[in-house]
Amino acid sequence: MDKLYQLALWFGLSAYYLLVAAVSLRVALKRRVVGVSLAWLLVIFIVPIGGVLFYLLFGERYLGRRRKRRAQVLYQTLRESLAETTRLDPQYQDNLGAYAHPIHTLCFKQLGIPSTLGNQLELLSTPTDIFTRMCQDIEHAQSTIQLEFYIWYEGGKADHVANLLIAAAKRGVEVHLILDAAGSRDFLNGRWPIRMRYAGIHVVDALSVNPFKMFLRRLDLRQHRKILVIDNQIGYTGSMNMIDPAHFKQNEGVGQWIDVMIRINGAAATTLAAIHAWDWQVEGGDSIIKRLPENSFQPNDNRYAVQVIPSGTALPSNVIQKVLLLGIYHARANITLCAPYFVPSEHLLEALITAAARGVNVELILPDKNDSMMVSWASRSFFGELLAAGVTIYRFQGGLLHTKAVMFDNEHCLVGTVNLDMRSLQLNSEVTLAFDDPKLCNDIRLLFDQYRNHSYAHDYSIWQQRPLVSKLVEQFFYMFAPLL
Fold it and tell me: pLDDT band at residue 75, thresholds of 50, 70 and 90?
C-alpha cells in the first residue's frame, strides 16, 4: 500500500511539474509586456495548482475561435458602413486640429473609423441632467433605440428608463438592448427583461458566463461599453452605467458614484450606432448594421472633429492606449487625467513621468475611496514614483469618482468608458470619444476644477512617511498590478 501511495505521489508530482513547466514555457513564448509575464510566472510558482488553473482561465486574451472569427468578418461590414460618414465633408481632414489630426490618422488606419465634423456636443455631469436628457430623447424616439451597458441596476430613475423603453416599443419603435452578462447579472435574472421582451424589446446578454466554456474562452473579458443611440441621430456615451446613484451600492462605504455622459447630435452618433450594431450581431443577433440609414447630416458651424474609438480584444491591439500615449507625448503645457481605477501599464507610467520631467503640468484626479481593495492598494504603489517626478495627485472626497476623462493642454479631451488600468486599455470592450470642441473642453476644465475643490493633494514628503505596513501591502499588490 505504501509503495502504491508513493508511486501515485511520484506520478502526481511529476505530472504537476510537467504542467507547470509547460504553462511557464507558454507564458515565456507569448509576446507581451515583461511585467505581465513575470507576474503570471509568480502566480504559477507561488500558488500550487491554483496558479496554473488561474492562468488557464484568465491568462490569455481568448474570446473563442468561432466568436473571434465572426467578429472579424462582421467588422468589415462595420468599416464599410462607417466609410459613408467621410462624405459629410470632402475636405474634413483640413479642419482637424493639432491633436485631432494624428489621432484621426491612427484610428482610421488601425480601425477604419473616420472622425466626423458637424456634431453638437453637450456635457452632462449630474444624474438629474443625464436622466432628464436621456428620457426626453427616448420619449421622442421615432424609429430606433439602441442601448449597450455594462451594468443595469434596478431602482429609481433606471426603472423609469425601462418603462419609457417599454412604452417606446409598444408604439412601434425598434429597441435593441445589450447588457453584459456579468455586470448586469442581477438585472438579467430579474423581472424587467421579461417585461421588456413581452413588450417587443430585443434583449441580449453579452459574453454569457458559462462554467462549461471556462476553458474555451476567458470569462473576465467583459463588455464595458456604455452607449445609447436614438434614431441614429442622437447618441450618448461616457462613464455612467444604467444606474441611479441614489440606489446603487449604498452600503459599500464609498459614497455616491460620480459620472459624466456626453450627448451627441450628429454624425458621431451614427458611429456609435454602428458599433452597437456590430456588437449585437457578434452576440448572435440579426444584422442591424445594414439597416443603418445613410447619414444625412450636414456639417454645421461646429467645425471641430469627434473621433469615436472602440477598443477590445476583437479589435487591433491596444488602440486606445496608443491614442492616450499619443496625446501625452504631444502635450506641451498640461495634462489632467481623471479615473476611478489607476493601475497604469509600464508605457503609460513612463509617459506620465517623462511628461512631468519635460515641464508639463501633470495631474491625476482619483477617488479617495474605492470599491476595489486590490486596485486601491495597487494604485498606491505607483504614487511615490509619480510624486517624485512632479506629478500632482488629487484624491476626490465627494463620493466614488467614476468619471473617465483626460484633457491635454485644455484643448483636446478623451471621455468614455476606459479606466486607466490594463484591463480597460488592453482587454475589455470599451468606447471613447476624442474631441477638440473649445466649449466642451472648457466645460470639462471647469468640471475638473469642481473635482479639485472636493479633493486633497498628496504631499511627497508626507507620503514617504506612511507606515511600513502600508508600504509592504502596496508592494505586495504591485507585483500583481499587471493582472488587475
Answer: confident
Contacts of 20 (CB under 8 A, 6+ apart): 44, 45, 52
Q: Cell numbers at residue 198, please?
A: 413581452
Helices 34-46, 50-58: axis angle to 10 degrees equals: 140
Are 223 and 360 within one domain? no
Inter-residue contact 399 to 382 (CB < 8 Å): no
The per-residue pLDDT for range 277-298, each reduced to its tens digit, is 999 988 876 766 655 444 444 5
Cα→Cα distances 335→228, 320, 381, 391, 401, Å:
29, 17, 21, 10, 18
27 and 92 co-located in one domain: no
Within this chain, do residues 244 and 132 fall inside the same structural domain, yes or no? yes
**Beta strands per DSSP E along 157-230:** 174-180, 202-206, 227-230
Domain ends where: 267, 284, 306?
306
User: Does residue 105 lie in a domain region?
Assistant: no
pLDDT tens column, 439-460: 999 999 999 999 999 999 999 9
Residue type, 273: A
**What is the rounded CA–CA span in Å between residue 469 and residue 467?**
5
Q: DSSP 3-state assignment of 121?
A: strand
Q: State which residues form the domain around 20.
A: 2-58
- For residue 199, the domain's CATH number is 3.30.870.10
Coil, helix or strand at residue 169? helix
Q: Is the dihedral of CA 425, 427, 430, 431 positive or negative?
A: positive
Burial level of 106, CB count in 10 A (0-12/13-18/19+)? Answer: middle
Q: What is the value of pTM for the model shown?
A: 0.87
Give bridge partners of residue 123 from the DSSP assignment: 262
- The torsion of the CA quartet 406, 412, 417, 421, rounded to 10 degrees, works out to -40
Q: Which residues are catalytic?
A: 224, 226, 231, 402, 404, 409
Nearest Cα neighbor of 307 from 123, 100, 124 is 100
Query: Cα–Cα distance between 328 and 259 in angstroms, integer?
Result: 23
Q: Please name the residue ranges forming H helices in 283-419.
A: 319-330, 346-357, 373-380, 383-389
Rounded to whole angstroms, the Cα distance separating 221 from 428 reads 5
Q: How far apart are CA 107 and CA 96, in angstroms?
A: 14
pLDDT tens digits, residue range 208-262?
Answer: 766 655 555 566 678 999 999 999 999 999 999 999 999 988 877 788 999 999 9
What is the chain's length? 484
Dihedral of CA 127/128/134/139: which sign? positive
Whether residues 352 and 390 fall in one domain = yes
